[in-house]
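Need tokens for this chain, all 285 residues.
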Amino acid sequence: MKLLMLKSLTIASLLSSGLYANSIAFDKKLLNVEKKKIQNILKRKNGISLNSISIILKKDLKQDGWYGYAFDLNLKVNNKNVNQKHFIFSNGNMIAPELVDAKTNSSYKNIMYPDLSFKYFSKEHLIAGNPNAKHTMVLFSDPLCPICVDEVPFIMKAVMDNPKNIALYYYHMPLDMHPTAKVLSKASMIAKELGIKDIDYKVYNTDFSNFYDPYREKDNNKALKKFNEIFKTNITMSQINNKKYEDKLNNDLDMAEEAFVNGTPTIFFDGEIDKTRTKYEKYLK
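Here are the structure tokens for all 285 residues:
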């Protein structure tokens, strides 16, 4: 019996390694196919060329052998290097630029996100809940995003009022369309160090659009002055421009990029993307 079991395990291992090798070979073939296709497309585009292409995510869609692939394209656009993501789908025989669930009419691109690693659950980014909780939420948000202002305070307060079951981790993701958002994000970091409790919740609960147009206002001094008035702080623009806070903000933005986040608010629940932004609700009291 032991010999038979050992033989079975050996065969299973060989089959597994063979499938893995075939998978690697197919991925390399797929990479070359996409590289040639994109190069041919770019031949018709003046001033744009492909520097490099790589597979950065392969996700099992659990649908009849279909996988989703995310590629990182490094392009040269008018002599500037630009990175762009590109998605395709394959079942080993066919390649498709789009794959849609016939039942829900939802594109599988909507779930093409990596599962978050433990590095996203750092003490520095924990803003509510229990770090030892069974469930985790990771939130990427912009303090001037109107949807964020509507939803994020409610989400934060829900976890603050139910701290046992969920740990909430927050990453600043100020968008370029809101010129003063970076100043508010950095001011929040400084205020937190000054000991202002629940500062991120308070910032979102303030709604700075009551004081100026988040899309048009470019005066960082005006934004900082209003922040200081509301939270009774004396943060200076010199502090805002300190490399320490620039590095902290860039780290948050890099973490968002690595998680394929390109809009706010974005939530991952238990490490997986949650497009509904509501999965946490059933774990509240």
